[in-house]
């Protein structure tokens, strides 16, 4: 019944009552009023979520990077889009929704980036190499490219590992532009 009668995500219970009272399915409904009200709000919320998801997809098509500012968007085009008109958004509301969407994307990208850093075997390898000892680490590793074993063709892995500053490596990775290129699919 609600699917047939309501298509506007901004409609209120009071404003839709005259329309619903003409529908025999509503008038003859065995549901108590509070359950009808609950179903109404759940349905309208679902409509709103659907239009917000469509608006977010539009944002994603115009703002692929996390560093895209609202001023770089085609605001007039977005305002005249179906999701924005259905949600009744004006420029300020559209900007607020875009900023909220960007914060959520940035947060999710940050979580994904931190997870990548935690799983990064390269960083882990150099971190552990500097801490462990023993013959394997104290021994030099030979270059295999020309097949000679001269003293100058050997690398002291322990010295190399101690020269790697993990904090600096992580700082460089975090500041890297790759963070700005991570795209989070919001739906």
Order of strands in the sheet with the most strands? 1-2
Secondary-structure element pattern, one letter each? HHHHHHHHHEEHHH
Q: Which regions are unreliable across 5 or more consecutive residues at pLDDT < 50? A: 135-146, 179-187
Major β-sheet annotation: 2 strands, antiparallel
Structural class: mainly alpha
Share in β-strands: under 5%
User: Which percent range fits the helix content?
Assistant: 55-70%
First-last Cα distance: 27 Å
What Rg is obtained from the alpha carbons, in whole angstroms?
A: 29 Å
Overall pLDDT confidence: 75
| Total E-strand runs | 2
The rough form would be described as elongated
The domain tally reads 2
Number of helical stretches of at least 4 residues: 12
Protein name: HEME_HALOPEROXIDASE domain-containing protein
Organism: Ganoderma boninense
Pfam families: FF (PF01846)
Keywords: Oxidoreductase, Peroxidase
């Amino acid at each position: 019944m609600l699917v047939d009668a309501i298509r506007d995500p901004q409609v209120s219970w009071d404003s839709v009552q005259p329309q619903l009272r003409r529908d025999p399915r509503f008038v003859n409904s065995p549901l108590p009023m509070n359950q009808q009200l609950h179903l109404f709000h759940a349905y309208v919320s679902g409509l709103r979520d659907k239009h917000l998801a469509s608006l977010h997809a539009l944002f994603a098509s115009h703002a692929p990077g996390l560093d895209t500012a609202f001023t770089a968007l085609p605001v007039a085009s977005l305002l005249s889009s179906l999701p924005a008109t259905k949600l009744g958004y004006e420029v300020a509301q559209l900007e607020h929704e875009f900023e909220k969407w960007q914060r959520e994307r940035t947060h999710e990208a940050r979580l994904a980036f931190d997870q990548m850093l935690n799983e990064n075997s390269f960083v882990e390898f150099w971190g552990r190499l500097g801490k462990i000892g023993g013959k394997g680490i104290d021994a030099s590793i030979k270059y295999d490219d020309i097949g000679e074993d001269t003293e100058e063709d050997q690398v002291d892995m322990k010295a190399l590992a101690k020269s790697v500053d993990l904090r600096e490596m992580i700082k460089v990775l975090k500041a890297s532009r790759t963070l700005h290129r991570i795209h989070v699919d919001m739906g």
